[in-house]
Write a structure and sequence with these properties.
The chain has 154 residues and is an alpha/beta fold. It has one domain: Response regulator (Rossmann fold). The chain has a 5-stranded parallel β-sheet with strand order 2-1-3-4-5, with helices on both faces.
Length: 154
Amino acid sequence: MEKNENNPFIFFLVFDESLPRVFFTFHRTLKSSGLILVPVRIDQLQNIISASDQSQVIVISSVMNSSEMKIYNEKVRELLKFVLKNRRLTFMLLSSFLKLSDYNLFSFSKNYFFLKYPIDAVLLSEKIARYYHLKSKSNMKWPGGRRSGIGEFL
């Protein structure tokens, strides 16, 4: 995967071959914030996290109906137990369903967020852009100098 600091990628988790309408809405609003929304399937998620050069990988998932909820419960929840241990990944679930027990399981890791529908796409895109820039490598640098040591003298 090519490193591109000017246009960072935000991943959108899709459950089947067709893209939902909400993908195109978020794609437009995130593009205006300087972020690129990329669809990704469940089986590709682990490979993308390990291959990405970004300091922070943000994955958005949208559950809008009961069939998507069934797929989410069967496939995604099991994978989240392992994937959320990686601190580079931030998972945002957008749903009109209840939080279930996911929030209790994953909220301690500070990289799982549940957002309830209806939600304004423009406001969410601004929050995602701000979150990404706060977590990026350029903002994580220590402003002070190097600590002195005696390693060179030994």
